[in-house]
Amino acid sequence: MFVKQSVYKNSARKEYDITDEKRNEYRRISKESRLAKLAAEQGLHEALHSINIPLLNPNDLMPQLDKNNISVLSLFSGGGGLDLGFDRAGYIHKASYELIPICKETLQQNRPHWTVFGGQDEGDVSKINWEQYKGQIDLIHGGPPCQPFSIAGEQKGIDDERNMWGEFNRAVNTIKPKAFAAENVLGLLNPKFENFVQKYILDELSGYKIVKFEMHASDYGVPQIRKRVFFVGFRTKKSFAKFKIPTATHSYTPLGDSQQNLTLSIFDNELIKTMGVREALGLNDIGFDNLAPTIRSGFTGKRNTTSVLNSSAGQKSWGDMGVWPNGVQMNRNKASAFPAKHDHFRLSVQDVALIQGFPENWTFAGAVYQILGQIGNSVAPPVAYQVAKNVALALTD
Ligand SMILES: C[S@@+](CC[C@H](N)C(=O)[O-])C[C@H]1O[C@@H](n2cnc3c(N)ncnc32)[C@H](O)[C@@H]1O
After folding, report:
1. What distance, in Å, lies between the first and last C-alpha atoms of the chain?
2. For 214-273, what is each residue's pLDDT tens digit?
3. Which helix (H) or strand (E) holds 229?
4. Is 146 a catalytic residue?
5. Could you tell me the residue ranges of all domains in the chain?
6. What contacts 343, CB < 8 A, 6 or more positions away?
7. Which residue out of 146, 328, 353, 354 is catalytically annotated?
8. Fold (topology level) of 61-249+380-395
9. What's the rounded Cα separation, in Å, for the pair 99 and 121?
10. Best residue among 77, 87, 93 to mutate for probing ligand 1, ranked by most atoms within 8 Å of CB
11. Which of 82, 112, 182, 194 fits a disulfide with 231 by CB distance 3.0 to 4.6 angstroms?
């Protein structure tokens, strides 16, 4: 029998059909999962998988560079992906601004000496008078919220009140740094947003020569399918001409793909191999490995979720790797004590952070869902590092 149910999501009313059978199945799964978790918390399970020791250390993907004396202001800082990449590339952090208070805690617990403004009162970039920074900042970086352009969202662009490009531009045009670097989702390159990009980014930042390019996280050693677009602008023609769009340092070859191996060995023989998820996390060899599907952004889909699933297609990909993408745990001990179905490996937040290119010594504040939100919203730090490194070279005489 079909029963119509109404659900309200983002205040738009949608309807879907669900059979009693399906509903009972969902209830059964949810009950089983609750009971398994309870048993794990009470220590009733033997640890199903041993605690993994990752092979990938993301710090190796971004060796710490000497201080370069380039001062940087961070807007929309989130959990610090861009901030960390620029920090590892030697920039001098001046201040970070971020609306969500828990992100401020993350930044401060990792870099207690940094100046971080967080929350509605002090972190909202739309309320800041940027005149105070004139003459003190060489570079502004930021990832203005991307939901207005994300394929996971409704792509309302300029009509979306969360579009914050205007605020990014206001900071740049007031402070007039030597350069800026802005990151966003690939959706912004959709022809649908061509006019938006011209009118609200390139035209508004007309004091800068701007280069726009795409970056793939796995080209820099991060074991994930994650593509982003960068806009990098320079005040002088000289720096603009000197800037080189980062080129791949790594390459991922699927296990057992001999044709691919051959092609890569001919063309990319200098590239370092990007690890697959299982290898990066130090899991045993099951004869199959892959890049992780894009880790979901904290602002798409269900709120307060402890899943990293971005799409139903991702489910299969995680499944093929024998990794469970739901019910991520706060640490590896908890994950190992909470067996997942089919003997799959259950992730901890440290594992998810690593798949996003965060080293273990960068820790996140908040509950699991808040941590996953910060990770899913971030720029993979090794990607930010490559941009930061090349911008620094362009700014240095
Ligand atoms: C895409 S995330 C940035 C992620 C960050 N660049 C990183 O690499 O980790 C966008 C961030 O902008 C923040 N944000 C949104 N509106 C804001 C505002 N008015 N002022 C300050 N931050 C804001 C969001 O809370 C979110 O953390």
Report:
1. 73
2. 999 999 999 999 999 999 999 999 999 999 999 999 999 876 555 554 445 445 568 999
3. strand 227-234
4. yes
5. 61-249+380-395, 270-376
6. 48, 49, 322
7. 146
8. Rossmann fold (3.40.50)
9. 8
10. 77
11. 182
